[in-house]
Amino acid sequence: MTLPDADYYDVQALLDRRERAKLAELRDFLAAEVAPHAQGWWDREEFPFELLPKLGSLGLSTPHRAQPDRPAYSRLFHGLVIAELTRADTSIATFFMVHHDLFVEGLQAFGTPEQRERYLADAMALRATGAFALTEPEHGSDVARGLSLRARREGQDWVLDGAKRWIGNGTFADHLLVWARVSDGPDDGQLRCFIVAGDSAGLTRRKIEHKIALRTVQNADLAFDGVRVAEADRFPGVASFDDARTLLLSSRLLVAWQAVGQQLAAFDVARKYAVEREQFGRPLASFQLVQGQLTQMLGNATASMAMLAQLARLQDAEEATMPRVALAKAWATARMRETVALGRAILGGNGIVSDYRMAKIFADAEAVYTYEGTFEVNSLIAGRDATGVSAFT
């Protein structure tokens, strides 16, 4: 008997033929190149650099705007790509999101023609990797007001001083999009964004150790001590945090799609275990309480996917506002937390060892719940829009 897919309402059927074929190609790739190895990478905190040329050859790192030689994909397709990447390995999905949806899309949105000519082709093919350096040691949720990395002008160059923290891909990225505040002159206090080479003099990169989630992702502490950046590597159109928000809206929405992928993965593992594992002479799946847990997981995943599919339509119509995205991120990640907890419980003691995959899914969910805006902050953003009253100080 063939069991139904965790995409229970067949959301992927909304894609066009080209996109469905590419999604099937991605699934085959993930089954062969990622799923068999992901647990080992996670256990060893090891990033699979050898995977990048193969991942790049799929042609997924394409800006949402159509290119002369490559049509654009829909937002629904890109959301399902992130969900499928997450379903196979949350860490690889996170790497790709940082690289594509923050670095590549940052170049596309704010880069000059000359900057795109220098960086975009290699980035899209994953011959070069990118990172997005916004969060700081003392500023996460309040980084819009508190950003403290400083940039001052010296002749034709800029000089950066300060620190960043939790920068995904930060230990190895060839290029980083670094957000800083001008510290002198007539533009004092304004925001700037720079393309900084990973091997720049004065830049120190240190891997953050002892994580319990996304262990394959190489998060970094970055220290900038007089790092010089040419004016040619500044995004001239960036002047305020509103510019950063244009990228964060899309990346926050994709983290909500990660919450979908986490639930699909949890359901896959829990159902397989429940069907195959016998207790009291019967498969676990024959017990009413277990079936109730599995249907709750399936309902959570299906509802989250439906919510995100509608939001993808709004995004294509340029109607996906930050409050709408914030609600989706908060709600889908809350459902995800419930889903992975139910899945872990179905596996019993085997659910707390990484050999059975569920422990990794359960642990990775905590990072998805927190980054790109905590549940609390996103709830307040949506609440402010719904009531017209701000709860922020």
Descriptive account of the structure:
The protein has 393 residues and is α+β, with helices and mostly antiparallel strands. 50% of the residues lie in helices and 15% in strands. The longest helix has 36 residues. The protein has twelve helices and nine strands. The protein has three domains: 119 residues, Orthogonal Bundle (Butyryl-Coa Dehydrogenase, subunit A, domain 1); 102 residues, Butyryl-CoA Dehydrogenase, subunit A, domain 2, CATH 2.40.110.10; 147 residues, Butyryl-CoA Dehydrogenase, subunit A, domain 3. The protein is globular and about 80 Å long. The strands form two sheets. Strands 1, 2, 3, 4, 5, 6 and 7 form a seven-stranded mixed β-sheet that branches.
Going by CATH, the homologous superfamily of the largest domain would be Butyryl-CoA Dehydrogenase, subunit A, domain 3
Percentage of β-strand residues: 5-15%
The SSE order reads: HHHHHHEHEEEEEEHEEHHHH
- Helix proportion: 40-55%
Layout of helices and strands:
Blueprint: H1 17-33, H2 38-44, H3 52-56, H4 75-88, H5 90-110, H6 113-124, E1 130-133, H7 143-146, E2 150-154, E3 157-168, E4 175-182, E5 191-197, E6 203-207, E7 219-230, H8 241-276, E8 278-279, E9 282-283, H9 288-316, H10 322-346, H11 358-370, H12 375-387
Parallel strand pairs: 1-4, 2-4
Antiparallel strand pairs: 2-3, 3-7, 4-5, 6-7, 8-9
